[in-house]
Specification:
The protein has helices spanning 2-31, 41-49, 56-77, 100-112, 141-159; strands at residues 84-86, 97-99, 119-124, 128-135, 166-173. It is of the alpha+beta class. Strand 4 (128-135), helix 5 (141-159) and strand 5 form a beta-alpha-beta unit.
Length: 179
C-alpha cells in the first residue's frame, strides 16, 4: 500500500505545484496590468459571480471535493502491514527488529525444506503468518499440516518476536516433487 500512497502523494503534490505556479503567474500578470496568461479571469469572474451556494453545480462540486478528501483520509489512516516486526529486547538500550519480507522468505525456506512440500507462499502480518503450500496428491494432508505447523511454531519461537505471531497453514494439492 505504500506504493499507492507514494504515487497518490506524487500526483497530488504535482497538481498543487502546477496550480500554485499558475496562480503566481496570473497574480503577477494582473499586478503588471497584463491580460491573463492561462486562466480567463474575466469569463470565470462573470460565470462564478452568477452562481449561488444553493446552485446544483456548486453543491455537486462541494460533495465531490468532500468525497475525494474523505477517501484520501481513509487511505492514509488504513492500517498497513508492518515493514518490520520487533524482537524481544536483550537490554533496555537495544532495539532489534526483523524485516517482514526477510521473515517471509526465512519461513518459506523452512516450509520448502519439508519433503512433502513442492511450493510455498508466506504472508506475514503483525499478528499472524499465513502459509499456503502445495503438496502432492499422494501425501496425507493432516500429517503434513501438523508437521508444517510445528516447524513454523519452532522457527517463530527461535526468532523471539516481541509479540506472539499465530501461524496458519493451508494446503493445496499440487504435483509430485521433482528430485
Amino acid at each position: 500500500m505504500t506504493v499507492v500512497n507514494r504515487m497518490l502523494a506524487l500526483v497530488v503534490g504535482l497538481a498543487l505545484l502546477a496550480a500554485g505556479m499558475v496562480t503566481v503567474t496570473e497574480v503577477v500578470a494582473a499586478r503588471l496590468g497584463r491580460p491573463p496568461w492561462v486562466v480567463p479571469t474575466t469569463v470565470w469572474d462573470q460565470t462564478l459571480g452568477a452562481l449561488h451556494w444553493d446552485d446544483p453545480s456548486v453543491v455537486w462540486v462541494l460533495i465531490g471535493t468532500l468525497v475525494i478528501g474523505l477517501l484520501l483520509l481513509l487511505l492514509e489512516l488504513w492500517p498497513h502491514r508492518p515493514q518490520v516486526l520487533a524482537l524481544q529486547q536483550a537490554s533496555p538500550d537495544m532495539t532489534a527488529a526483523v524485516d517482514r519480507r526477510g521473515l517471509q522468505e526465512h519461513l518459506r525456506q523452512v516450509i520448502v525444506e519439508d519433503p512433502a512440500v513442492t511450493t510455498a507462499r508466506v504472508q506475514a502480518g503483525k499478528r499472524k503468518v499465513a502459509v499456503e503450500a502445495a503438496v502432492p496428491p499422494s501425501e496425507d494432508t493432516a500429517a503434513v499440516r501438523q508437521r508444517l505447523h510445528s516447524r513454523l511454531t519452532e522457527a517463530l519461537e527461535r526468532l523471539n518476536l516481541q509479540r506472539p505471531v499465530r501461524p496458519t497453514v493451508r494446503l493445496n494439492r499440487g504435483e509430485e516433487r521433482v528430485r
